[in-house]
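Schema walk-through. Below, the input block comes first and the output block second. Nothing else is stored per chain. Lengths vary across the set, and this one has 246 residues.
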Amino acid sequence: EAGASVLLLRACLALLALPIYLLSFLGMWEPFCRKVFFPFILDKIGIVHDKKSKKHKQELFRNLPDFRGPSGELKLLEIGTGSGSNFQFYPPGCKVTCTDINPNFQQSLSRNMKKNQHLHYEQFLVAAGEDLHQVPSSSVDAVVCTLVLCSVHSVSSTLREVLRVLRPGGAFYFLEHVAAEHSSWKYFWQQVCYPTWKLVFAGCCLTRELWKNLEEAKFSELKIQHISLALPWTPIKPHIVGYGVK
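--- output ---
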């Protein structure tokens, strides 16, 4: 019975990660994770993920210039900027507002900003995707979100905020890992890893069916492609990539 094997294997994984569970119980893991571990590990995983996703991102962001505003400028807001690994794909002269709930990525962020001086960096906001109140309604031409919707508290609230800050005719770009096919081994392992993975990787959920949230959001046009990224030894191979127009 799949349910029982999932629980048994979850318990084994929890035993392996026992020190982390203990630190979490003592209230010490989350601050350490946010400040030190997560920025460090995301940098390392990010390098691999960036290599594997590069051609998909080039393809995804190719039509960004089509969404320039009436003034000819492209105002872009990125949710969960992290270390800024998407900067290289944005067109020259693009005005970027960075937001992240975690302000501890400064080192890798400033490294990527130096590398990408073809952009204008407008501001950096410490903000959750569900609450972008510092950004006026209908004020940006494009919103970008990669590997972020897996860990927001509410996907639907985040998408509501995306639609609020976008001007009519603006576009939301996404590339996210998602739940595997339910009958597959991949999904079985996603279920096994779920609780420990979520604890270790700052709230990242493995089994979200994000395409459903995107279909429910009120985009006038939505392009979604299901892809698989070869990330050995990780439960995050299935991804979706695409964009929605307000």
